[in-house]
Amino acid sequence: MKTGAKILIESLQREGVEIIFGYPGGSVLPIYDELYDSSLRHILMRHEQAAAHAADGYARASGRVGVCLATSGPGACNLVTGIATAYMDSIPIVAITGQVPTTMLGNDAFQESDITGITLPITKHNYLVKNTADIARVVRESFYIAGTGRQGPVLIDLPKDVNTNQIEEQPFLEKVSLRSYNPTYKGHKRQIEKALELIGQAERPLIYAGGGVISSNGSAELVEFATRLAIPVTTTLMGLGCITCDHPLNLGMLGMHGTEYANFAVTECDLMIAIGVRFDDRVTGKLNTFAPHAKIIHIDIDPAEIGKNKRVDIPIVGDAKSVLKDILSMLSRHGAHDTWLKKIKHWKQHHPLRYKNDGKLHPQFIIQKLSELLKGNAIIVSEVGQNQMWTAQYYCFTTPRTWITSGGLGTMGYGFPAAIGAHFARPDLPVFDVAGDGSIQMNIQEMGTVAHNNIPVKIAILNNMYLGMVRQWQELFYDRRYSYTELPSVDFVKIANAYGIEGVKVESPDDVMSALRAALDCDGPFVMDFRVEREENVFPMVPAGAAINEMIGGHPIS
Amino acid sequence: MKPHTLSVIVENKAGVLSRVTGLFSRRGFNIESLAVGTSEEPGMSRITIVVIGDDAQIEQVMKQLNKLIDVIKVSDITENERVERELALIKVNAEPGTSRAEIMQIASIFRAQIVDLGSKSVILQVTGDTEKIDALEKLLRQYGVKELVRTGRIAILRGAKTVASLK
User: Fold this and answer.
1) Using CB atoms, which residue from B26, B64, B70 is nearest to A180?
2) Distance (Å) from the alpha carbon of A13 to chain B's nearest alpha carbon
3) I want to staple A146 with a disulfide (CB 3.0 to 4.6 A). Which of A25, A92, A204, A345 is the partner?
4) pLDDT tens digits, residue range A435-489?
């Protein structure tokens, strides 16, 4: 005879789970009792939201399914932001929640919340398990659903009695079969042929690559495709790292805070090859002026993304890696687009990303130094806002899965706990969280977690004593009326010290490199409090709803 | 913008209906009519949804429905030859000695059945398409409709074709 809790832990181990991020409570006591002498590692976070983000960071850095655990009611509700973050960015996590006993369901019992109802719109699927005999199957299905097709979060809600009830040993369920769920991986051959015809005719082709390339592990295929056909590549925020930043064909990020040359290329291209992207409003700006001269090929594993925002000419439903492989196997020739590439080179030379060089401490400079120091051999996590955009613009990403950020939901407070998860996925790499003074205070309690477990996450706070991105919008669009965006000075080093974490305050550009080195050389966690220029803005910037070649801090297309 | 009749085959599991309807409200699609019940296949339910939208919107509705794990098949049968029916139960004022006879006459013209006869009221059961039921309801208003209950629309393909055989 086995309890539900024991079956749960064994099922997780069968899925290859080595670590879970969680927070105990009344209704998950049976599960925690099983964890007590299990080989499964559990990291005690300081907030359930952080547990969800840590599972998400683990998933992004490793490519495997991340797992978090919380109790019923408030514990489960605290996971919600983390689950929604994973949902928007298609990140595979399995969230396990405790629930009041089945006999009390629906009675407004202590710490009861309808978490399957609450998470219905932010999970790929969820389960309320009412029978102990279903646990093994549900866990199996959850990992399968989370990790296949367009990936995403799955939640399993387990009432307390389901965990304590005992049942006879069950045979292990080898294969999952769901008659209603069969994701398409292989692209349709005829569609691929049509795409190749268009590619052959194009004079000014452009690849627009996103998170789907990273999640399908298709970066190598993407780079080979781009290189063989000499097609320039621009990536979304989620796609950074799928092609090394210093590749001659890489145009960096496009969209609201994209490079001028990437946005120019979008506006002038005659063929757009969109791979693993969803034409998000932060990328496209005004939809009808996005790629106005281009035919569009759209490769995506989710058929619902095709034609959702922008009409496309050649849809190809399939996994980015698989489709790119098929394209490569059908390519008969190499491409050359000399005139087009020359034009792009001209834009790159004349309109690079830039900021003032006046001896003051600019946040962009710190990111450049970080990039110089780490040379791509690190995992960079960000919070949300200006810190995120400067990191995306100025850090040279060379490898997929080394850039971890909340793209779709834009969750402040995401970075620090996600960095904790990333560390456990890649303990061989240093992990830096680039934060703002606003974001870091949204999950600052995780200093307790990193101190407790000596997790060597380095936090670089770009401290401008503002909610910088909101302030920037107020400066540009609300007549500098800084309504509730100024934050008082906080001594982050003292906070770190109180947790037993080392830290340093930096006020001059001359001290940036030594602070970053000190962080890298430190065995444990480390906090850098960079006192940066307070009213620095992220440029270029496409105002919301404008055409993407109309950038504040940009130039007309030459 | 026109009404589309969608036939949605789903797993007969707890919570499926809220997954389907939640998707409609969350993505801003309006349900005109909804009917749900078991199907010919054990373990499967069939939902008939009438939704108004242009072709792009309907395509998006169908794709989003298909993404739900418990949804087995979604078909737009608007362009197919089909039989569509609704059922209504209408309780009408009918004091003895008044217009009972007239009401019964109307019922027989509409092929409605009298399913209950009380001392002060009569209940009519009518099946048909939306327009027919609307017309009957309108006629009965003059006698005083005390209560009216209508099902959602259900639809089935004509001939040997089935929704399962549709592409």
Assistant:
1) B70
2) 24
3) A92
4) 999 999 999 999 999 999 999 999 999 999 999 999 999 999 999 999 999 999 9
